[in-house]
Amino acid sequence: MIRYRLYTNVGGREVNEDSVGELDNGASYCFALADGLGGHGKGEVASAIAVETALTIFNEDMSNPEYLGTAFTKVQERILTEQRTRDELADMKTTLVLLKLSAGIAQWGHIGDSRLYLFHSGKLRGHTLDHSVPQMLVNSGEIKEKDIRFHEDRNRLLRVIGAEWGTRSFELSQGIEIKPGQQFLLCSDGFWELIDEKQMMKTLKKSGSVEEWMDQMVAIVNETGQGRDMDNNSAIAVWVTKD
């Protein structure tokens, strides 16, 4: 049984440039989250296009094993087309993270600094790595992973949808078997920067439902964000349960 909750909030900004969405037929599920880039113009349009396009493609063939690669490619093509044909959208860009659950297999992909976390029985098993300058510094050993949050260059992204790709810029995971006790969290940087992984696990272990988990995390995000210029913050929580 797949249980989930979607959340998005404008934070302290005038416009919510995050978009979230979900589509399923009771057997196959797709979850999509995108964060339009502020300062590039029409970020809210870019993120909405990304989520809508990704879910439309999923709806056309939910069992397609090549769905994720196709979705990222088609979203990029559509964003670039809109940039060329509409001057006011020429600079729009967005991150994108997708999770597909189908035929007993979970697989995900991402580009930018919107993340997917995987937990099992309340313990963190891993998360996607940002396409950002601070993540590059972590990879080279210059800073620690915990230093990504609030790093002065954290908003400098190296890969996004809407920028020309020399090679394939998105990353796809290997498929893993779907098992009861797994939990997934898709979230924008405005969400994960205000709640660390220990807090994610602590609230997860205390929660009796996916809704309760999300509510507890949102409370921490809002508390941590008090007095800050809070970014848009969005998340999708997904639980795999026995019934």
| 3D shape | globular
Q: Distance N terminus to C terminus?
A: 5 Å
Radius of gyration: 17 Å
Can you tell me the residue ranges where pLDDT is under 50 for at least 5 consecutive residues? none
Counting DSSP H or I runs of 4 or more residues, the number of helices is 6
Largest sheet: 6 strands, antiparallel
Number of strands: 11
H and E order: EEEHHEEEEHEEEHHHE
Structural class: alpha+beta
Proportion in β-strands: 25-35%
**Overall mean confidence score, pLDDT:** 94
Percent range of helical residues: 25-40%
Description:
- This protein has helices at 43-60, 67-85, 133-139, 189-192, 197-206, 210-224, and strands at residues 2-9, 18-24, 29-35, 96-102, 105-111, 115-120, 123-127, 171-172, 176-177, 182-187, 233-240.
- By secondary structure, it is an alpha+beta fold.
- Strands 2, 3, 4, 5, 8 and 9 form a 6-stranded antiparallel sheet that branches. It has a 5-stranded antiparallel sheet with strand order 1-11-10-6-7.
- Helix 5 packs antiparallel against helix 6 (210-224).
- The longest helix has 19 residues, at 67-85.
- The chain is globular, with a radius of gyration of 17 Å.
- The mean pLDDT is 94.
Defining key terms:
5-stranded antiparallel β-sheet, alpha+beta, 6-stranded antiparallel β-sheet, single chain, 243 residues, 30% helix, 6 helices
Summarize the structure.
By secondary structure, the chain is α+β, with helices and mostly antiparallel strands. Helix content is about 30%, strand content about 25%.
